[in-house]
Batch of 2 targets.
Target 1
Amino acid sequence: MPAPAAPPAAPIALGSRRELFVDRFLVAGLEGAELRLATPLDAGPALAFDRPWEGAFCAYSTVLRHGGRWLLYYRGVPSSGPDGRAAEVTCVAESADGRTFTRPELGLFAMAGAPRNNVVLANAAPFSHNFSPFVDTCPGVGAGPALKAIAGVHSSGLHGFVSADGFRWTPVQAGPVLPSPKEFTFDSQNVAFYSEHERKYVLYYRTWQEIGGTKYRWVSRAVSEDFVHWTTEGPVDYGGAPPEHLYTNQTSPYFRAPHIYAGICARFFPGRQVLTEAQARAVQVDPQYFQDCSDAVLVTSRGGRSFSRTFLDAFLRPGLGLQNWVSRSNYPALNLAQTGPAEMSFYVNRDYGQPTAHLRRYALRLDGFASLHAGYGGGTMLTHPVTFTGHRLALNYATSAAGSVRVELLDGDRQALPGFGLADAAELIGDEIEGYARWKQGVGVGAAQGRVVRLRFHLKDADVYSFGFLG
């Protein structure tokens, strides 16, 4: 695990925002407790890439919510070849619940044997290679197009697109919004979004970084006030984590805590071959696509070029089946979807380069990328000094029948505030997405508003996924 960050110079202003246990930003000390990475639940196929214009090399998927439904965008191309070629198209599918997707019959572009189909961009090389849309939440957008997209390869630079309905896309201008530098770049899915936290458009894009004589697939960042004029800021910093090839970065604001950017990235191991030639023939993978393997890892940021790789272990392993151990499989889609009152989902391209290529859904508890965890023997976590503005302390937590969660509020000298000590704290037992810390006097924490405090969590056979001082 990377070394913890230095303590903050001033108290952390939490306000009433929700905080997750995806990094050590708030952690001053752990005793008998740990930050534990979640294990996603395989929820089954979401869409098979089985149309003639789709096929084995569908990739770079994006899921977003627009117009009361979920939209899935992805590259369609049935055969391998150079990036940005004319055969590539951009496809869309729809879902009411984010669990399974169907194709709308749009009729915008005629495909062989199917005049009505789900293609939203064609005959527009190279932009269907990595077309990456997002919902524009900038307050100044008003009645303008609700959706924007970024697309392009090194030979073209990155171009911007806009759409009102998610199906009909037009360029924002004739040339690129971010021209290519001299160094080779943009050869992956490049992702943009409007950051409510930073109050600007943010772009994370593919670059390369030489470290110790090895060139790694890397990520760099640019920002913009208007989506058209971009300023590059340079490569991101993973805080001392060992360098690895992150093929896609898939960074976006987490929808329940938008000051935290979460990326479920494809981690690529070039030349790490698992299948023999005979096994590759058996799964019918393209002969050029079985000499490498990939999995997925979790990275997070709180803005800027600094990222945390708190967990170096795989977030999603390739899993059972030789078909999962081929080149460029297991690539996560951009964004997460809330698919139930207590559930969120992310999506992964599986069986790349094979006739069985498809998008698969994985489920997590809401806020549940990771948790503060302690076993039966119990443990504690102490936060750095913080201030807050809410009136109740909400917790997303789960315990065993024998387990519990309790919370203390301490002053700057780590002494319990009157009425908020361990002896005053009620045991929380159960499993709730939004439960409330309680003390003998009740759930109110207004008496501590405006003060610099620390929180000490006491856990026994329990997990806490998030907390926040809500209104």
Target 2
Amino acid sequence: MKTLLFLISVVLSLAFNSDVWAGYVITRQFTKPGVEKGREALPHLQNKGLIAEFLDPGDTGLGKCLGYLIWREVLTAISDQSGAGVILAHPPGQERIVDLLEKNYHLAALEIARDQRCSMALWGAVWEQGEQVFLNSFLSVLPEVRGGDLLIRLKPVPGLEAEIARTRYNFALVQTNRNNLFERTVVTRRSAVLRAEPQANGRPLQTVPTNTPLAATAMQGGWFVVKTADGGKAFVDNSLVEVPPRQVEGKYNTATLFQGPGQDSRKIRTVYLDGEYRVLDMRYRRGLWYKIDLGDTQGWVAGHLVDPKFSLPAVHFMAGLYRYRAGNYRAAIKEFTSFREESYTLGDRANLATSMQFKGAAQLFLKDASGALDSFSYAVELTPFDPAAYNLEALAILCTKGQLVGTALYNLERALKLDSRNPRTLALISVLQEALVKGKHRSHIESRFESPEKLAKKLQQLREQAGLTQP
């Protein structure tokens, strides 16, 4: 495997305070597994993820740019999530990684993520054909967190649990172009120097004040190419600017359009939002605000009234994982819903199913058993070959009452037919029967089935089908 040095750049996102950034650089050499560990960045944080530079087999220069761009988009997506850290791993300087195999690169990214105690790692590959850019993206949830974050327990019965089994995601291919990726507004987060070359000692052209929106047209490494006031071009380092989504989407809702960011600004008028709108500016002021272009007018709307549109659906998926890990379940539901809407036409059935499982789990935590059941049922429809999907739907059914609950056993039976030794399925059957036999939680279990006698009989049949002995 080729020797590869990685630099780790870190940004800390803290509760809508865009001034709180923690920078960190680590040099690592990856020649074989088990190398000496590097210094951990942001050791006080438990909710961290890693973005690795995208592989670029055609040496187009897009791999390095996309690493920075997706890193910044994930930061924007979780900008209001307290205590969340995002780490970017990339080779130093202009060193390229075009010769690495995907498998080796994936292992290297996971090793960095483990070393930094990250719970997930996102990376990808890019190639260009004519004016079209093709993007593959991959995300891994580290196996070390499977027993905690991905396990859903139904109280008060001990052992009544199921898990979201998939931890590796190969997202559907995205076809786009350079303009759709890089033509966007960026906003200075402090006084920023625009330079003639994309390097720290590049010739300074002008200094622009904080909160200045700049029109970006391209990227070169970690630098945005922006238009100057005289129509020329300049470079600004990505660390000096906020990176809003290129567009936001309104979904059949009304919103008040303000002259400035904040409800204390002058109201322009009430507008009906239905479609996608170009973002002209972004500001954090008692929450997130976007300035959008409606064609006949421009104005500011509250961020919670629109949905951001990012370069890859995977950004929403990763943001959903951050929210879910933090217990911010309503925000997690919104992110996984956005992922579903952006991925639906791509035919990404397995990842769509997992997003619905996370959404369903978040709904269970919010005590929305009916909504959770709908989400888990949709996951089964998308992946009828997945035993874990049936286990999760069975668990959701056990949270409800009424005639529908009888189908919980059907789900367990389906799971067994797909995998007769599935440990979660077998555990669910054993826990249900043990509760009936020993009686400690018998009333809780029986109250969820229209016929306790049929329940006991069916459980015994399932145990015999699986070759289990009596509890």
